[in-house]
Amino acid sequence: MARTRLYRNGDLVAEDFPIDDISDHLQADDTVVWLDLTAPSREQYEQVQEEFGLHRLAIEDAASPRERPKLNHYSGHLYLSAYQVAFDGGTSELVVHQVSAFLTDRALITVHGDGFDIDAVVQRWDTTTELAVHGVAYLVHGLLDVVVDGHFDAVQELDDALEALEDKLFEETPQAVRDVQQRNFRLRRVLSHLRKIVLPMREVVNGLARTKFVDEDIAPYYQDLFDHVMRVTEWTESLRDFVSSILESNLAVQGNRMNNIMKKVTSWAAIIAVPTAVTGYYGQNLPFPGYEHRTGFVTSAVLIVLLSVGLYVTFKRKDWL
């Protein structure tokens, strides 16, 4: 699938025209073209490479499914790679979709898979038409603005999930303990993946702001975009400490629970040892006070009850039971 748009002097004048007509449209002055390819074939890559004079290495990067976010400079064009992300709270997984972009003086070519929400990018362009006079810089800004907003939403949802996990730390049911441990490690893995996507965006946006595509009129918008990237980056780093603190708190809580269990087991063992000691003493095969008399049985029973109750009360006061 391919989508196209043609802007002239900041106005949208054509849409969804064939790829073969792009060369004819670019012959006119003050025109900017957007071409979008969804899961393109090798033939489409070759057609685009020939049409816009794109570098072979940039084409290989766009076809690769696991490129890191980056901005590469080639003769005549730039290559940009980024990721749209969404956090699935139900499964505690990070949904990731790659988008690649080729930037020329008068054209933006975007390449992505089926999962990337390109409609959100088009909607962002349609709501910021006052910036369309800036051409390619306007198109790239709208694309990255949607991507960074997605990063921000994912970090916020991840933060909420970590706070909900923190609230479950002091639930003492076995199921809650297992859920906290499993979910903590899943969220930690998600955060690690998200950091690999978010952190390089600083270099991407900062590098774009220094290129010839960005003039002084649209530069403040790129600065605002960079500020959003920095906020997401700092938030991600703070969540990294948050995850570590939850893990440490969980270990401390588990240690305290284990200490309480050991105190209770030890206390009951001490109580149980009382009747064992008394009955063992009165079970000797030799005469002792009360031997073969009812008073001996009464005395042993009283000793067992008094000592056991005394130990129980003592341990209860010390909060060992």
Describe the overall structure:
This protein has 321 residues and is α+β, with helices and mostly antiparallel strands. Helices cover 58% and strands 17% of the residues. It contains nine helices and seven strands; from the N terminus they run E-E-H-E-H-H-E-E-E-E-H-H-H-H-H-H. A seven-stranded mixed sheet has the order 2-1-3-7-6-5-4, with helices on both faces. The model has no long low-confidence stretch (mean pLDDT 85).
Largest sheet: 7 strands, mixed
Strand order of the largest sheet: 2-1-3-7-6-5-4
Tell me what portion of residues adopts beta-strand conformation: 15-25%
What structural class do helix, strand and pairing data support? alpha+beta
Helix content: 55-70%
Gross morphology:
rod-shaped
* First-residue to last-residue Cα separation: 70 Å
Number of helices: 9
Radius of gyration: 35 Å
Q: Determine the mean pLDDT.
A: 85
Question: Secondary-structure map with pairings?
Answer:
Elements: E1 2-8, E2 11-15, H1 22-26, E3 31-38, H2 42-52, H3 56-63, E4 70-74, E5 77-88, E6 93-103, E7 107-112, H4 118-127, H5 136-167, H6 174-198, H7 201-209, H8 219-281, H9 294-317
Parallel strand pairs: 3-7
Antiparallel strand pairs: 1-2, 1-3, 4-5, 5-6, 6-7
Helix pairs in contact: 4-5, 5-6, 5-8, 6-8, 7-8, 8-9
